[in-house]
Design brief:
The protein is of the alpha/beta class and 253 residues long. It has two domains: 5-61, 3-Layer(aba) Sandwich (S-adenosyl-L-methionine-dependent methyltransferases), CATH 3.40.1630; 68-252, 3-Layer(aba) Sandwich (Rossmann fold). The protein contains nine helices and eleven strands. A seven-stranded mixed sheet has the order 7-6-5-8-9-11-10, sandwiched between helices. The chain has a four-stranded mixed sheet with strand order 1-2-3-4. Strand 3 (46-51) and strand 4 form a beta hairpin. The chain binds S-adenosylmethionine (SAM). S-adenosylmethionine binds next to helix 4 and helix 7.
Length: 253
């Protein structure tokens, strides 16, 4: 992560949270009068990441499952390609490991469909944003039950997948949404994805994650890809569910 980044607080009541986060993430507290490219800001509405690299266009990312696109997708969940790809049938939601949690949108859709989801996120700052969003969702009457189906584990998913392989333990489905290659156009212009690109580790070895996933899944592994991209490895999927910009490759076990 090359950007300068610090933790700030909206007011004195948010200072203890900011202190705690700065310590946990190994980041400095923001100093008055200093410019930072990114600010992790503790405020009344929760934790947000403020991108201040472009003066004219301040952009903010926070995880909010009760409002906006997440709420819309929650209401539309049955139509989601992801739900079909994972193979969710009425009354039989599979247990899912989401090995690439990010900002949790896909995990939330799966949990909305009834799945118990173990979500992994290896970048501490992204994990902090997701944890904050989940905590607020657990307090909101509309999202409480859904958020309670999600367990966030802030570490490299390969550690758990490889342990499962050693102990012969399985989950129903493993879902992977590795970072797409960087492009100027398409969905990647979305602010969340641009920021994820800055924060996420460069080499996450998604092919190795995929191989570990194949060993840990009982029913299927699902991989999200840009629609025109090659498959993650040479192994051909059993089938794909294709949309306008993305595709889900499904590997039946
Ligand atoms: C494209 S984003 C996922 C977006 C997510 N599906 C969503 O709905 O918000 C990929 C994320 O996976 C994380 N990641 C990649 N490899 C990982 C691994 N081995 N273990 C845990 N997290 C990983 C990255 O840090 C990044 O945040």
């Amino acid at each position: 992560m090359s950007s300068s980044i610090a933790v700030s607080a909206q007011g004195p009541e948010h200072a203890p949270q900011a202190e705690q986060l700065a310590k946990k993430l190994g980041l400095p507290r923001a100093q008055p009068g200093r410019h930072y490219e990114l600010l992790l800001h503790c405020c009344d509405t929760g934790l947000e990441l403020v991108d201040k690299r472009e003066k004219k266009q301040k952009r903010t990312v926070r995880v909010d499952f009760a409002k906006g696109q997440a709420a819309h997708r929650r209401r539309q969940q049955k139509k989601e390609m992801l739900v079909r790809a994972v193979g969710i049938t009425e009354g039989m939601p599979p247990a899912v490991i989401d090995a690439t949690g990010g900002l949790g949108r896909d995990s939330f859709i799966l949990a909305t469909s009834g799945c118990r989801v173990q979500t992994f996120e290896q970048v501490p700052l992204i994990g902090a944003l997701l944890e904050d969003g989940l905590q607020r969702a657990r307090l909101h009457p509309e999202t409480k039950k859904i958020a309670e189906r999600i367990t966030l584990i802030q570490e490299d998913a390969r550690i758990t997948l490889q342990r499962m392989q050693r102990t012969g333990q399985k989950t129903d489905v493993v879902y992977l949404d590795p970072m797409f290659p960087k492009r100027q156009k398409s969905a990647l212009v979305k602010k969340e994805l641009q920021l994820l690109h800055i924060l996420a580790k460069k080499d996450t070895q998604p092919d190795r994650l995929f191989l570990a996933a194949l060993q840990a899944a009982r029913l299927r592994v699902v991989v999200k890809r840009p629609v025109k991209s090659s498959t993650l490895t040479e192994l051909p999927p059993s089938h794909s569910i294709t949309g306008k910009t993305i595709r889900f490759d499904v590997y039946m076990i």
